[in-house]
Amino acid sequence: MSVISVDLGALTAVSKRLDLREPNREAVESIAFELVRHYDIEKRPAPFEGVVDSATGMGKTYIFAGALEYLALVEGVRNFALIAPSRTILDKTVAQLTPGNPKSITHGMNAPLVVITADNFNTPSMATAMEDDSQVKLYVFTIQSLLKPSTKAGRRTHDFQEGLGSGLYQRMQEADDLVVFADEHHAYYGKQFSAAVRELNPWALIGLTATPHKSTPADQIIFRYPLAAAIAGKYVKTPVIVGRRDDKHDPVTKLLDGTTLLERKRELADEWAAAQGVSRVNPVMLVVARDITEAEHWASIVRSSDFKGGAYRDAVLVVHSKAVTAAKEETELRRLQDIEHPDSPIRVVISVQMLKEGWDVKNVYALLSTQPSLSDVLTEQVLGRGLRLPFGEYTGIEMLDTLEVLAHDKYEDLLRRKNVFSEQFIDHKIRAHLRTDSRGNTVVVREVEVVENPVLPEPAPPVAEPGNDSSGPGRSAETNPDTAPTTVNAGSAVEIRTGAPSLATIDARSESALEQRFRLNTEIAPRRPVQIPILRPMAVKSTFSLTDITDHEQFRRLGQKIRTSPDDTLRRTVISAEVYTDPFVGLKSTRLRTAEAVDRIEASGLVFTMPQLRAILTDAVLGLGIIVARRDDAGVERRAIQPILDAFLDGLNGGADTILSAYLQRATALLLDAVNKEYRRFASAPQFEEIVSLTTIDKIRHNTRPVTGDKHGHFDRGQAYEGWQRSVYSINWFDSAPERDLALLLDEATQVKDWCRLLRNDLPILWAASGQRYNADFIATTREGFSWVLEVKADNQVTNDEVMAKREAAKRWVNKVNASNKTSDTWKYLLVTETDIRTARGSWPALQRLGQ
Q1: Whole-angstrom distance, CA of residue 708 vs CA of residue 723
Q2: Looking at residue 12, what is its pLDDT?
Q3: 226: burial class by Cβ within 10 Å (0-12, 13-18, 19+)?
Q4: 8 A C-beta contact, residue 286 and residue 332
Q5: Distance from C-alpha of 403 to C-alpha of 265, rounded to nearest angstrom
Q6: 3-state class of 320 per DSSP?
Q7: Are 430 and 229 in contact (CB under 8 A)?
Q8: What are the helix (H) ranges across 286-418?
Q9: Which residues pair with 829 in a beta bridge?
Q10: H or E element: which one contains 578?
Q11: How far is CA 103 from CA 25, 92, 93, 273, 360, in A?
């Protein structure tokens, strides 16, 4: 009769002594329970291997300390090893686990701990400690020092040491109770690193990471606490995505905005610290540059006397492989380590792939990545550098509880791309739990709590009362093969020294919903290939000159159109999270939420002079494809643009430098569009040669969006939809609600045989002599024997000149195809609006009559 020893009282005591956060307590419990499953229930051989996946900023060292304390006091383990991927992480860990160090967390530990490193192991006192079974030995090494002896560090740990009677590596191998913790576990999947860790032959190997390696088996992840859950629990700062309504995105503007936010946070932090009687915090901004050249360029901007009057000249620290000479390296590293000190002069740290795992300061309050994509900025490796709470808990002041992420996307684009937030934070929580089945046997189950994909709009749904257990009579535990409960053989005894805590578990009926949410990266094959004609355009020689433009008044009206005062505040979107309980099935989930930030912060940026603005606009117009081909040795075109610019700037009616500096990108786009319209008035329509070939739409498509079968529900651009009857592809996604509505009509109309949602370059149609092409939205075949090219537009777009020009080009394309005798199908074109689709009410004949 086997006995399972689980001391829940000891787990509770360890948690209290170390003041563990609830997720860290659950992680320690999961380690204890999973060891019980492995050795006492399933009777499996050594080693046990599991991975704790805990969000950046949650304090993985506390999980390690709690597990060490429990295993040392309850299981009698005397040999522990913590393997670090770098010297930075090793030094941080040694400091945290050395009594008396300012950063030590050992004040709540009762285990008689001695820390052994590659620097101190070969001493008489350490040899004595290693022989003393009453001492708990913690070996802390970098992975490099455990590699086979090709380096000095490797030789030191592998070579025979007279005082030990063996090599240190051999001594650890011979310990039958060795528990190895692999910090940043994802770093050990290389062949050499993996061998160095696993050949220690540990009793248990426990990985700690915030970003598991893709090769990690699913059943090895014994605990997961994702970033969204940490945000919901207020264990880390809440990210605030900073955007602008204007067009400024130059380095100076970005750095000005970042330091402006930093200065406001510094004021509030000083006030709060003084009021609370706690130490001051030194808020800093981390700039993550793409390469060394960019890092040095951005540093030169901040150090310039022109940047805020030289206030940041001596406040910048650049960190990359070539940033400092060997002579200055120690001094610079000390400045980096001292950056949390209230009197540190550093305000801006500019890094190139140097400050990742292990740089765990708490006072990063602004994060500026030079990566162009918001997705790149929101990865946990980047975002995690600024998530830790400087005061240890939320202050209740939003500016002090948030991390500013300067994305500098246009604010309108930022709001349209809310799905980016979900793509980065979607995940689920996992924890191990002891339960008793109907026969009285103890089982170990893994609970799963979902982090939902959609970003919810305001207001929030009501949150159910906490503590409701979703498991009940007639409901089974989680039945995923990777997380299935393990039952003790009948007749086994369970020794539990305190009452088990009340814990909620996920309902097994939610598995299909969970699977649906995470069904991403789907490959979709066409049900049957579709053939469409391809036309080859002929080049059309343009004789257009800017001197052909005689109506300058239109450019004055264009200036009046954009004459508006620039928005002088940054647009800041708070990405918060909440725990939500479905009132119908009792399933808990963590959902992301976006809201406008409370504080209004003034936007910054460069203001160009009028000569600079005229030069920028001139170069933009002359760079158009319709102009650039012409030789302008005599400066005819450059002179011809001046009255156009005069009228345009006059329409701004003063303040043109301020307005254009703020909205230069869109003002330039409007000016170029107006010049293009004049060009199209003078240029010939594009011509086509005969059909070159028929192309086939038969490629496998790759879906990266969450999939739903709710085709008639609320439209979400970040969602893919399935369940189509007549579509060439079983899963489709759309750019707008009218596109989805047109797809529904085509799918449900009995007159339609099949239809296909076109992607870019499936059917490009030339619509301007300058070579511009556009992509149609749909093709469809009907039972009357026609093939259709379909386009859907918003009501307010259907009459503009560009849409009309594209419609005429599509009609010419249809005429040419039908006259070619190269295809047996008769093609037609239909342009419809969102109102046309609503009015048709699902009727294909009605839509044909309403469309153009």
Answers
A1: 9
A2: 93
A3: buried
A4: no
A5: 10
A6: coil
A7: no
A8: 292-303, 326-337, 374-377, 380-383, 411-416
A9: 789
A10: strand 571-581
A11: 20, 9, 9, 20, 12
* DSSP H or E run through 224: strand 221-225
620-658 pLDDT, tens digit per residue, is: 888 876 765 445 555 778 888 888 888 888 888 777 777
What is the spatial distance between Cα 22 and Cα 5, in angstroms, rounded to a whole number?
A: 23
In three-state form (DSSP H/G/I as H, E/B as E, the rest C), the secondary structure along 472-539 is CCCCCCCCCHHHCCEECCCCCEEEECCCCCCCCCCCHHHHHHHHHHCCCCEEECCCCCEEEEEEEEEC
Short-list 239, 230, 181, 231, CA closest to 209:
181
Q: Which residues pair with 538 in a beta bridge?
A: 687
* CA–CA gap between residue 11 and residue 66 (Å, rounded): 8
Residue among 621, 617, 608 at smallest CA distance from 661: 608
- Under the banding of pLDDT at 50, 70 and 90, the label for residue 314 is very high
Return the closest-CA partner of residue 732 out of 761, 763, 703. Answer: 703
Cβ within 8 Å of residue 851, ≥6 positions away = 830, 831, 832, 836
Q: In what order do the strands lie in the sheet with 752-757?
A: 752-757, 778-782, 786-793, 826-833
Could you give the CA distance from residue 484 to residue 435 in angstroms, rounded to a whole number?
12
Residue in the structure block whose two tokens are 């560090």: 153
**Which run of H or of E encompasses 287?**
strand 284-288
Q: Which of 200-204, 227-231, 497-501 has the lowest mean pLDDT?
A: 497-501
**The predicted structure's pLDDT at residue 490:** 31
**Which one, of 479, 484, 485, lies nearest residue 514 by Cα?**
479
Rounded to an integer, what distance in angstroms lies between the CA atom of residue 771 and that of residue 837? 31
Which single residue is written with the structure tokens 């229930």?
41
What is the secondary structure of 369-384 as a DSSP string?
Answer: E--S-HHHHTSHHHHG
Q: What is the pTM of this model?
A: 0.61
Residue 436, beta-bridge partner list: 442
- Running DSSP on this structure, what letter comes out for residue 37? I
Q: What are the backbone dihedrals phi and psi of residue 114, each rounded to the nearest 5 degrees, phi first?
A: -125, 130
CA angle, residues 614, 619, 622, in degrees to nearest 5: 120
SS3 content of the chain, % helix, strand, coil (to 5): 35, 25, 40
- CA dist 628 and 104 (Å) reads 67
- Taking the C-alpha atoms of 303, 306, 308 and 313 in order, what is their torsion angle to the nearest 10 degrees? 20
Helix (H) and strand (E) counts in the chain: 27, 33
Is the pLDDT assigned to residue 815 strictly greater than 90?
Answer: no
